[in-house]
Specification:
This protein is of the alpha/beta class and 472 residues long. It folds into 3 domains: 6-89 and 302-471, Beta-lactamase; 93-163 and 168-179 and 255-297, D-tyrosyl-trna(Tyr) Deacylase, Chain: A (3-Layer(bba) Sandwich); 184-252, no CATH class. It contains 12 helices and 19 strands. Strands 3, 4, 5, 6, 13, 14 and 15 form a 7-stranded mixed β-sheet that branches. The chain has a 6-stranded antiparallel β-sheet with strand order 2-1-19-18-17-16, sandwiched between helices. The longest helix is centred in the middle third of the chain and has 15 residues, at 257-271. 43% of the residues are buried.
């Protein structure tokens, strides 16, 4: 975003009520105040805090002590806590146990899979894990596949509760045996010769039906029919798919956990050369079962990159619950909330307004001030895990949720940021270099119905911070 001309900025400020005008003019950078006015957001609904980490001084504080909903920038707190409390090399395991005897290559009994909250037990992980079971000599499973999810003691999750969008992947709940985020991907492939659009699913789930009524038409990709009509497990896509879109993909979650697990297990077990005709059901690990194989996740330092760069909510939920499972499982939200607060207090950080519902920021009740979220960033910058932490944040104009932001700005490639957005909330937090090479911690939180229009406000603040002392 280019900075607005001064004349236009002052015209916008003049349109504000006198009290708000004075506050904005006296305490906010001009470009930020102008962007707020243009977005229709009152300055009273904003919290901003900027801290120079090089000189250890406050640079900007505006509404910094208001308790606001930070949306997904709450992941800044969750991932820092996970790095310090679990350690950057921490890994999650998933176990395969035999509830029966292995006679040659046939299991006379049940196979038990026990999960410990792996945030990224993807379909590739499942396939490789099952391949390992085959390599260890198992081919035919005579009984059922039993799933032990008891490591997380949590209430059943309603994916429609947050915003009545139960098929959206961000609404998937935590699960000690979460497989592939319980999602499937649809790839939309335009065919100019046939004037049609192909839709391809991965993985293929026999319980779901995709109805393709899309038509390929001319035009740019400003709008395309990404949201289908949903009836039970049937997704119907209709309307015109603009040829300018090229190939697109979207993720969905439709099936209950056990139906999803059964579909993937049956498909992948067959692919690796196994046979099985049983069913999937829940159970706690039988005392007589024997351990057969263990899968280990990538380290936490790698997984937080997915959490922060791409804001994957269910991974953040898994990490947050894992905090409450050590040293005494099972994990519970109340345990994680208590351990998080105790860790903050040991660090000398006291946030009386803090409310953390699930660690992901997908919440209507979460609260933190911009000053205190910035204190998290300041503490992380001074922590031994600082390199892993900063590397997990999106780099402006380069990757993650900031990939398409500020590409024509001097801030491109200069700021590591975490974004946050839910209805009525827009937030950003992270680290920005300025023109003199100094590092600054930056937090901006907006809670207002017009928050959806606030991206230019964020961009204006980052550009002001980057401009350095000359602009301050």
């Amino acid at each position: 975003m280019k900075l607005m001309p001064i004349r236009f900025m002052l015209l916008l400020l003049a349109l504000l009520p006198a009290g708000v005008y004075a506050t904005a003019l006296n305490n906010l950078p001009g470009g930020v105040a102008a962007a707020l006015a243009q977005a229709g957001i009152p300055a009273s609904e904003v919290g901003i805090y900027v801290h120079d980490l090089t000189s250890d001084r406050e640079v900007l504080s505006f509404g910094a002590d208001k308790a606001l909903n930070p949306a997904s920038t709450m992941k800044l707190l969750t991932t820092f806590a996970a790095l310090e409390l679990l350690g950057p090399a921490f890994t999650w395991k998933t176990e395969a146990w035999l509830d029966g005897t292995l006679d040659g290559d046939r299991l006379n009994g049940n196979l038990v899979l026990k999960g410990y909250g792996d945030p990224k037990f993807s379909m590739e992980s499942l396939w490789l894990f099952l391949r390992d079971l085959r390599n260890r000599g198992m081919r035919d499973i005579g009984g059922d596949v039993l799933l032990d999810r008891s490591f997380f003691a949590i209430d059943s999750h309603d994916p429609a509760l947050f915003d009545n969008e139960p098929s959206r992947p961000y609404n998937v709940g935590a699960d000690a045996l979460l497989i592939n985020y319980r999602t499937f991907r649809l790839q939309f492939v335009p065919d100019e010769r046939k004037q049609a659009v192909g839709i391809f699913a991965e993985p293929v789930l026999p319980q779901t039906l995709i109805v393709n009524d899309l038509r390929l038409g001319p035009g740019s990709c400003d709008v395309w029919p990404e949201k289908p009509s949903i009836n039970d497990n049937t997704l119907t896509f209709s309307g015109v798919f603009p040829s300018g879109c090229g190939e697109k993909f979207r993720y969905f979650s439709l099936l209950p956990a056990n139906d999803y697990a059964q579909a993937l297990f049956r498909q992948f077990w067959q692919q690796v050369g196994g046979t099985w005709s049983g069913n999937v059901r829940d159970v706690e690990l039988p005392a007589t079962a024997t351990l057969f194989s263990t899968w280990e996740s990538p380290p936490l330092s790698e997984l937080i990159r997915d959490v922060n760069k791409f804001s994957i909510n269910v991974m953040a939920r898994q990490m947050f619950l894992t905090l409450g499972a050590r040293p005494n499982p099972p994990a519970m939200l109340e345990k994680s909330q208590r351990i998080l607060r105790e860790w903050l207090e040991r660090r000398g950080l006291f946030f009386p307004e803090l409310v953390v519902e699930n660690g992901a920021g997908l919440s209507r009740t979460d609260r933190i001030s911009s000053r205190h979220l910035a204190q998290v960033l300041i503490a992380a910058y001074r922590s031994p895990v600082m390199p892993e932490y900063i590397a997990s944040l999106s780099l402006t104009a380069v990757d993650g949720t900031m990939k398409k932001r500020l590409s024509n700005s001097p801030v491109a490639g200069q700021a590591h940021m975490k974004t946050g957005y839910i209805e009525g909330v827009r937030a950003i937090g992270g680290y920005t270099l300025d023109t003199r090479g100094r590092m600054l911690a930056v937090v901006l939180i907006i809670n207002h119905p017009a928050a959806r229009n606030a991206q230019p406000v964020q961009d204006a603040l980052l550009e002001w911070v980057y401009a350095g002392q000359d602009s301050r």
